Amino acid sequence: MRLRQAWRTPAPRLAALFALAAALALGGCATAPAGGAAPTPASKLDPWENFNRKISTFNEALDDAILKPVATAYRDVVPELVRDGIENVLGNIYDVRSVLNHFLQGKLQSGLEMGMRVLTNTLFGLGGLLDPATEMGLTRRSEDFGQTLGRWGVPDGPYMVVPIFGPSTVRDTFGLILDRETSPAAIPQTDTGRYATFGVEAISLRARILDTTQLLEDVSLDKYTFIRDGYLSRRRDALYDGAPPLEDFGDDWEDEPEAPAAPAAPAAPAAPASAPAPTPK
Amino acid sequence: MLKKLLSASSLLLALASTVPAQANTAPDALVRQISVEVIDVARADKAIQAGDTARVLALVESKVMPHVNFEVVTRSAVGPQWRSATPEQRSKLQAEFKTLLVRAYSGALSQVKDQTVEVLKTLPVPGSTQMVVQTEVRGSGEPIKLDYRLDKQSEAWKIIDVNVGGLWLVQNYRSQFATEISKGGIDGLIQTLVERNKSPTKS
User: Fold this and answer.
1) Would you list the DSSP string of B138-175?
2) What distance in Å separates residue A12's CA from the closest CA in chain B?
3) Is residue A38 exposed (0-12), middle (13-18) or buried (19+ Cβ within 10 Å)?
4) What are phi and psi of B140, to 5 degrees?
5) For residue B124, what is the enclosing H or E element?
């Protein structure tokens, strides 16, 4: 009950911060040089690449200086049981947002299931500290406002990197503002409480993905591009609930058959000169 | 009751892992076989859990690699420039990209803790002979999508890309490859890959 009331309590300061962040990033497009000079063939998806790279560098510096060390210490010092509990409590609150977004997208069945999940974990999981719902088969299926906007037909718009929050698109940044309004950090009544909760959210998330981000460092040729392309295809995947329509992957670059060697060369002719640039995903 | 179920399922698992990789294995059966073998070993192996990268590499080498067609994988990531690459450049590209991908896949695998793999649907890719086998890694958190794209080559299904959590791993290298090629040609790309593979893993 208290939770639900809290949803309606706006977090003006935080919201203002995010709006500012968005405005900063958006404003950047005006000053960034026109796409022509962009070094990658994916410049259509990322017309603000130069500016985005700057924000990325800023975010990474911030991460290296503060978030990563704190999250690493948190992982090393705080017992796993406690970390899991914190993650569960936060996750239970995120799940409320997912319920809302399932319904907003007209997915009644999964909305009800996620609703059952929240009820189960709140009532039988000590207010969300434990996650008995997963064991009962009520699997978490997250949905956010960016996905809902996408379902409603709002196009992604250009890729953008949001200060502090990282990879996004114009649409997802609008979604992000709504997401923050329904986040754990929107619940406390005081600014101090909101910032503290936001800190806990950030540290908990960062600690969970420490290994993943290290892996990214290890296997990418250009981290910015790897993350951008990965983000865009993951978002497209999420928009289709994990099953985007399959299309020709355009990976047939076999040598053109010079002599009529094989009877009806298999796939080569079937591959049209599809653009070598990655399809927008 | 539970005990019976458990022993029945472990018997099934044992059976599944002893079935030899036959040439005519259906794509979903092949993916199921690989998942069972790899995830089960990774889950039970204390050294892998502790982050022994050499062990993970060995596991991937022996269980997964025989079912991957690295020529198609590399060609797909390189794109149209593949046609202008010499045989020597091609084999170098292939070797270096393989090292990188094995590292990526192994890194993802060593994060497997208490998960199980569920094979979902098998879908044809329009306009090709390829199939996508969808699977889901289920554990304590939100399920992670793990799809495999396969193509039939000389009577055997071979993996040509893996989708982890919504991104096709090989495809995700395309624009990075394109950038490297536009900067320094095929040789420039090879050089970048060599350097990338030489850099020590900090994880």
Assistant:
1) ESSSS-EEEEEEEEEETTEEEEEEEEETTEETTGGGHH
2) 31
3) middle
4) -80, -35
5) strand B116-124
Pick among B76, B128, B151 to test the A interface (most A CBs inside 10 A): B128
Nearest 5°: CA angle at B105, between B99 and B107? 100
Separation CA A221–CA A217 (nearest Å): 9
Taking alpha carbons only, the member of B86, B88, B146, B87 closest to residue B115 is B146
pLDDT tens, residue by residue, A130-185: 999 998 989 999 999 999 999 999 999 999 999 999 999 999 999 999 999 999 99
d(CA A226, CA A224): 6
What is the pTM assigned to this prediction? Answer: 0.78
- The answer to whether residue B137 neighbours chain A at the CB level (below 8 Å) is no
- How far separated are the first and last CA of chain A, in Å rounded? 40
- What digits encode the pLDDT tens for the residues A92-109? 999 999 999 999 999 999
- What is the C-alpha separation between A171 and A11, in angstroms, rounded? 21
Give the C-alpha separation, B146 to A58, whole Å: 32
Amino acid at the residue A72? T
* Tokens linked to A45: 């998806």
Best mutation target, A143, A251, A252, to test chain B (most B CBs within 10 A): A251
Place of tokens 């009751």: B1
The string over B3-42, giving b where at least 16 C-beta atoms fall within 10 Å of a residue's C-beta and e elsewhere, is eeeeeeeeeeeeeeeeeeeeeebebbbbbbbbbbbbbbbb
Per-state percent for chain B, helix, strand, coil, to nearest 5: 60, 20, 20
In whole angstroms, give the CA distance from residue A60 to residue A219.
17
